[in-house]
Amino acid sequence: MHPFRTVLLICLTLNTIGQGSVALAQNATPVPTAPQLVWHDTEFYLFFHFGPNTFTNVEWGHGTEPEDVFNPTNLDCDQWCRIAKQAGARGIVITAKHHDGFCLWPSKYSTHTVRESKWRNGKGDVLRELSDACRRNGLKFGVYLSPWDRNHPQYGTAAYNDVYVNTLTELLTSYGDLFEIWWDGANGEGPNGKKQVYDFHRFEEVAAKLQPNAVVFSDIGPGCRWVGNERGLILTETNWCTLDTAGFQRGLGAPSNDTLNQGNVNGAHWIPAECDVSIRPGWFYHSEEDNQVKTPETLWNIYLQSVGRGANLILNVPPDRRGRIHEQDSASLVQFGERWRKAFSNNLAKDKKVVSQRVCMFTPIKYRSALLDGNRATFENASFQNNSFVIDLGKKTEFNTVLLREAIAQGQYVQAFTVEVEGKDGWREVARSTTIGVRKILQFPEERARKIRIRFLSSKKIPALSEVEVYRI
Ligand code: FUL
């Protein structure tokens, strides 16, 4: 994301001195898996809701729509990818099957698919075209496979769990590597009026076996969690990547929205938040919403309150009846992308060094080295204090944004911290927040100062940061 990354690992003792490595080695706090670490770095990607609903103008299809209603006139997955990249997105997740049961690929396990439609004379496969386009364009690819199915005749019986497992197996073995598998929590009635008791345990096993590097989304993970709202926001400053799931289920039995939003400070599992939101009021395309597309400004604010608060952001952009991203949506996405690139183009902390004093450890971060984009630097002019560190920018500089990352491969610890600047009368607080986690972007009114101090007020254990960036945005 940021072309000029600065990297440091700071282990600061809050009460004791110089015992960082011991404490970290004894750490029993949940930590991310290797696929989750990669997923965290994926940060922002697009969501595509596409299917019969695009043509029937509803949000939840009944499963009885004739297959022929699905007939995009000019499907162009390369256009989707081009715009995704311009927006700064790193992947795409598509509704392979939504609640209406229609499959965007010719599944062997359904008779309600693109194969039964007249689109491309029944020879089309949206997932093939999109997964190929993603690969060509260097984007990651993921799928949404709704467990709720309003079409399948066996939905609501034990046999449907086999159908779902077969469908999932087909999907996970036909389109290359997936970075994310998306399970929504909806569980309504099927065509026979019955609800399904999902065998999520089996579904999880299939996903883990066939796509071990994919992160599985649902209300309670296991890979990442729903954020408790569909506005794409971490609502407060606090976001723990840890969650307790014992006794909870997907859907109605999920933890409260508030818990999903903030996580559990001492949660037993690493299940980070993913913020989902649509660029339009609906998840599917409706022409009457063409003038209700979120502005680049709104997208920027959503970005700051999702990615900026340590979550991933999945932004839905519903293709229209042509099978293209509508002009209004692409204009907004491209402008957002320009704003995002410009915002993070000049890291004022780049090339500065941290000089550790006796109270801290300084260790290169091995786990991230493969993920960083080159440009490593350390802070030469910074100095540490007991529970703080100082970035010396070398001269008076204007800035209004600080970006921090915890070295989360070792867990998440920071509970409260402040950002201070040195003025004529000493240090002055300019911002205060709670968790850092994967990433915290903090903005404040513009300051002009030479030195910035990050002071930890409270932390579960010794905090370890992996990155500090400073910007004037
Ligand atoms: C929900 C679904 O019911 C909506 O239609 C949409 O797909 C949203 C992202 O997830 O569970």
In terms of topology, how is this protein built?
Elements: E1 10-12, H1 20-25, H2 34-42, E2 44-48, H3 52-56, H4 77-87, E3 91-97, H5 126-137, E4 140-145, H6 158-174, E5 180-182, H7 200-210, E6 215-218, E7 224-226, E8 242-243, H8 257-262, E9 269-270, E10 273-278, H9 296-306, E11 312-316, H10 327-343, E12 354-355, E13 360-362, E14 382-385, E15 388-406, E16 414-423, E17 426-433, E18 440-459, E19 464-471
Parallel strand pairs: 2-3, 2-11, 3-4, 4-5, 5-6, 6-7, 7-10, 10-11, 12-14
Antiparallel strand pairs: 1-13, 1-19, 8-9, 14-15, 15-18, 15-19, 16-17, 16-18
Walk me through what this model shows.
- It contains 10 helices and 19 strands.
- It is an alpha/beta fold and 473 residues long.
- It folds into 2 domains: 6-28 and 347-471, Galactose-binding domain-like (Jelly Rolls), CATH 2.60.120.260; 34-343, TIM Barrel.
- A hairpin with a 2-residue loop joins β14 and β15.
Which key terms come to mind for this protein?
473 residues; alpha/beta; Jelly Rolls; TIM Barrel; 2 domains; nine-stranded mixed beta sheet; eight-stranded parallel β-barrel; 10 helices; 19 strands; 25% strand; globular; disordered N terminus; binds beta-L-fucopyranose
Brief sketch in words of this structure:
The protein has helices at residues 20-25, 34-42, 52-56, 77-87, 126-137, 158-174, 200-210, 257-262, 296-306, 327-343; strands at 10-12, 44-48, 91-97, 140-145, 180-182, 215-218, 224-226, 242-243, 269-270, 273-278, 312-316, 354-355, 360-362, 382-385, 388-406, 414-423, 426-433, 440-459, 464-471. By secondary structure, the chain is an alpha/beta fold. It folds into 2 domains: 6-28 and 347-471, Galactose-binding domain-like (Jelly Rolls), CATH 2.60.120.260; 34-343, TIM Barrel (Alpha-Beta Barrel), CATH 3.20.20.80.
